[in-house]
Design brief:
The structure holds three protein chains of three kinds.
Chain A: H1 2-15, H2 18-44, H3 51-65, H4 71-93, H5 98-124, E1 129-130, H6 136-159, H7 161-178, H8 183-209, E2 211-212, H9 214-217, H10 221-233, H11 239-258, H12 263-277, H13 281-290
Antiparallel strand pairs in A: 1-2
Helix pairs in contact in A: 2-6, 2-7, 2-8, 2-10, 2-11, 3-4, 3-5, 3-8, 3-10, 4-8, 6-7, 6-8, 10-11, 10-12, 10-13
Chain B: E1 2-13, E2 16-27, E3 31-35, H1 42-49, E4 57-62, E5 65-66, H2 72-78, E6 80-82, H3 95-105, H4 113-127, H5 142-155, E7 160-164, H6 172-187, E8 191-195, H7 199-205, E9 208-213, E10 216-221, H8 223-228, H9 230-243
Parallel strand pairs in B: 3-8, 3-9, 6-7, 7-8
Antiparallel strand pairs in B: 1-2, 1-4, 4-5, 9-10
Helix pairs in contact in B: 3-4, 3-5, 4-5
Chain C: H1 2-18, H2 26-44, H3 48-77, H4 81-107, E1 120-123, E2 126-129, H5 130-152, H6 154-164, H7 166-171, H8 176-201, H9 209-223, H10 228-248, H11 253-267
Antiparallel strand pairs in C: 1-2
Helix pairs in contact in C: 1-5, 1-8, 1-9, 1-10, 2-3, 2-4, 2-8, 2-9, 3-4, 3-8, 5-6, 5-8, 6-8, 9-10, 9-11, 10-11
The chains are: A mainly alpha, B alpha/beta, C mainly alpha.
């Protein structure tokens, strides 16, 4: 089943309109960011608001190195740069209570924005850079490859002992540590892995824009959307974020042309409503419905 | 051999001294009870041993090696495991998965998942929870959850087990079963250091008792010595008067 | 500047320390205060200092109602306090986008400003702008009044009790929901004041909120999570640092704040007066 879908996706550019290819690239972008986000924040419950920061780092890596290195290397570097940034953030904040992590990641985008802006104005004298382009089909294929690698990684982690350990950290971190799990190391590395994919996606998508400046690269909306998509889609399973990402990317494309000022407002409202009424997302909702209403507690043995 | 010892252990929280200059030791193979009125600092001491809290001063050694200053998971890997006063099971994970984590991340590293699962199953059998292994931890009884914590701790292959109020909240039958379990654990060669309030249970099973009050050690000795010690009786008299026991 | 930081930090501290809501939309409330003041001044001609008395209550009401409706509902539906903290933070994330975009819709996305009392004044040998001095003065006054309110009045004591231990306070007859909603409202009140004062000295635009939220977050960590006086002091300290950095190298102030943040995390996460 999965192989069929993959085959269809792989051969897509051969038989569809250019617009579909572009749209799917965007969908893949959001899927990658959302699934990466869910890979860490889902089981552990540490809500990261940093995706925009990692994405921006990837974008800038592309801009800085795009003319110097072959493209696959650039994308890899984009991923690595984000990886190391995440290691740093993790080492600083994941030793402490979750709230510090949230706060730090929240401001990270703005921080990087200010820093890069200052750097460009004062040191390099330019704002905005030109990025070499790749062509939409190439972008599409690279995103597809990143997506596949991500899904393999995420599935592997989830079903391995590390996935179990991550979940236990989310349940009761103190008890997890007492079971011999090095909680700080595990959190930090998983966080860094998730950042890698987001950075790689950023580096790839940068080639579509040809011109970037700090405000384009470090855009808070890119932190907001994956959280929204993951919450709406449901964080328990890996396909929840995929569904959420697909729905919202379509929605965004649709709304952005008609109501350019309203669509963010609408998304904000959806976010609040989803938190209130959809704690387990769509996936959770359908699971509940399939089990025929509210779950009955197991009888004690 | 002294498997666990603490010298001058002190813990301050801002202006409040929770533990004050406590010396203690546990010999290998013993069952030692840690008792004292509420708020005496018993759980705090356990927290210091397992590095859930950091000592203000003093040193704690396990098998002669200093462990104060290590991180919690490292201490677990040296062979010290514990259970918690308020049960901390992983609620949404199955009983077996809870214990499996202990097998996978405890003292043996690089275990295949098949071996780890087998060991987890053995641990469950030992405490008598095999039947409920697939049920989410939040759906089993409190008594079973406490047993689950023990199984999980045992899966990390400890040499020393810290039990924090294992009996709290259990009815008389469950209490007897719990005490039998404790004996079984000792018979396996694991040293036990346990915090308890229920005197009857402790008196019967412990080789030695350490008594804390207001963060200080006020007495130490066999159950008989403690039961007849004036200091201890005075400290507890207030408690017993209220409890009417 | 420090005065403003102090005020908005106290506001956030109230919301987080007592009501347990990490209001990352705090900056948007500030922005609202700023814009309402600007609007009153340029359209209706109301003096910004008078606006303090208007903006404050408006924001307070918004905050209060928000808490009574949205957050109370979240509190009851969240399976645990930790889940509530997470969910309410995410809800604020949504609010952030809602408020920001409503503001853009109403007032447009461009930068606005007005000039009020921008005259230089000689104070203790150095030259300052009158409006900034007034800002600092007001911040100190408001801060002191609030501190006395917390320390002396019955309601203030109830708030402090609720901050320490909501459940027990409830048993003692404190109407917890009311108190928490009030605290959240007070937090918004502070934001409103902050916004008014900011608009007096600086230009404003609908996207300004984010930066102030981050600053407020750093300040409450600096002052100590859960300590309201700490937040006030922390705000003053950070404002001082900011002024120095801006003098040396404008544009790096946020970076400097983050460096302080990182140092805090490394060395003393509990902050100056933290528990």
């Amino acid at each position: 089943m999965i192989l069929i879908i993959l085959f269809l996706l792989a051969t897509l550019p051969l038989y569809s309109r250019g617009y579909t290819v572009v749209l799917l690239s965007s969908i893949f972008m959001y899927i990658i960011i959302t699934v990466s986000w869910t890979m860490f924040s889902g089981p552990t419950g540490y809500i990261s608001l940093a995706p925009a920061a990692f994405f921006g780092v990837g974008v800038y890596t592309s801009a800085l190195l795009g003319l110097l290195l072959p493209l696959p290397a650039v994308i890899g570097m984009g991923g690595l740069a984000s990886f190391f940034l995440a290691l740093l953030v993790g080492a600083l904040t994941l030793r402490l209570r979750g709230i510090y992590f949230v706060m730090f990641t929240f401001g990270l985008v703005e921080l990087l924005l200010h820093f890069v802006l200052w750097w460009e104005v004062n040191i390099t004298g330019t704002t905005g850079r030109v990025v070499p382009t790749m062509g939409n089909t190439a972008v599409y294929y690279i995103m597809l490859i990143i997506f596949v690698i991500l899904m393999i990684t995420a599935t592997f982690i989830k079903h391995s002992k590390f996935g179990l350990a991550l979940q236990s950290i989310g349940e009761y971190e103190e008890a997890a540590a007492h079971t011999g799990i090095n909680v700080t190391a595990l959190k930090t590395i998983t966080f860094a892995i998730s950042a890698f994919f987001i950075g790689a996606a950023g580096a790839t998508m940068a080639t579509r824009w040809t011109y970037i400046d700090p405000r384009i690269a470090f855009n808070p909306l890119i932190s907001f959307m994956p959280v929204l998509m993951a919450i709406f889609g449901g964080m328990g399973q890996l396909y929840g974020p995929i569904i959420g990402a697909t729905i919202f990317t379509y929605l965004e494309e649709f709304l952005i042309t008609r109501f350019p000022y309203y669509y963010m407002l609408i998304f904000g409202i959806i976010m609040v409503v989803a938190i209130l009424y959809l704690p387990n997302g769509l996936v959770g909702l359908t699971q509940k419905l399939r089990k025929g209403g509210l779950k009955q507690p197991h009888a004690n043995t | 051999m002294r498997i666990l010892e603490g010298e001058g252990v002190t813990k301050n929280f801002g202006g409040l001294t929770a533990i004050s200059n406590v010396d203690f030791h546990v010999e290998q193979g013993e069952i030692v009870g840690l008792i004292g009125p509420n708020g005496a600092g018993k759980t705090t001491l356990f927290n210091l041993i397992s590095a859930a809290l950091v000592l203000t001063s003093g040193v704690i050694r396990f098998k002669g090696e200093k462990i104060s200053g290590l991180k919690t998971h490292q201490i677990c890997r040296t062979g010290v495991a514990r259970t918690f006063q308020s049960v901390k099971v992983f609620s949404n994970m199955a009983v077996l998965e809870n214990v499996l984590l202990g097998s996978l991340f405890g003292r043996s590293t690089g275990m295949s998942s098949v071996d780890a699962t087998r060991e987890a199953m053995e641990s469950l059998e030992f405490v008598g929870l095999s039947a409920v292994r697939a049920i989410p931890a939040k759906d089993i009884t409190l008594a079973n959850q406490k047993r689950l914590e023990v199984a999980r701790a045992l899966a990390t292959k400890p040499e020393l087990l810290l039990l924090d109020e294992l009996i709290a909240g259990l009815n008389p039958t469950e209490t007897t079963e719990a005490m039998e379990l404790v004996t079984k654990i000792r018979d396996k060669g694991i040293t036990i250091f346990m915090i308890e309030h229920v005197m009857k249970a402790i008196m019967g099973i412990c080789d030695r008792l350490i008594v804390l009050h207001h963060g200080e050690k006020i007495a130490e000795g066999t159950p008989r010595e403690i039961a007849t010690s004036r200091t201890v009786v005075e400290v507890y008299l207030g408690e017993q008067a209220y409890a009417g026991s | 500047m420090g005065g403003i930081y102090a005020l908005i930090a106290v506001g956030l501290s109230l919301q987080f320390g007592v009501a347990r809501v990490l209001n990352i939309a705090h900056g948007e409330f500030i922005m609202l205060g700023a814009f309402i003041t600007w609007w009153f001044y340029t359209r209706v001609g109301i003096n910004p200092l008078v606006s303090l008395a208007i903006c404050g209550p408006i924001l307070f009401t918004i905050g209060f109602i928000l808490y009574r409706t949205l957050f109370t509902r979240l509190r009851t539906s969240s399976p645990s306090p930790a889940a509530f903290e997470g969910n309410s933070m995410l809800a604020c994330f949504g609010l952030l986008f809602i408020i920001q975009n409503v503001a853009i819709l109403i007032w447009g996305a461009s930068i606005r400003g007005y000039s009020y009392l921008a005259v230089p004044v000689n104070f203790g040998g150095a030259i300052f702008a009158a409006n900034r001095l007034i800002t600092l003065g007001f911040a100190i006054v408001i801060g002191s009044v609030f501190y006395l309110f917390l320390a002396r009045t019955r309601l203030g004591k109830a708030i402090r009790a609720a901050a320490q231990d909501p459940a027990t306070a409830g048993f003692m007859g404190v109407n917890i929901n009311q108190v928490l909603a009030l605290c959240f409202g007070f937090g918004a009140l502070m934001a409103g004041f902050g916004g008014t004062l900011i608009s007096m000295s600086y230009n404003i635009q609908p996207t300004m909120g984010l930066e102030y939220t981050i600053i407020a977050l750093i300040v409450i960590v600096l002052g100590g999570l859960g300590s309201i006086p700490g937040s006030f002091i922390g705000g003053l300290v950070l404002g001082l640092v900011g002024s120095i950095v801006t003098y040396i190298e404008p544009g790096l102030s946020l970076v400097a704040y983050y460096v302080i943040f990182m140092l805090l995390l490394l060395v003393r996460p509990t902050g100056i007066l933290g528990k």
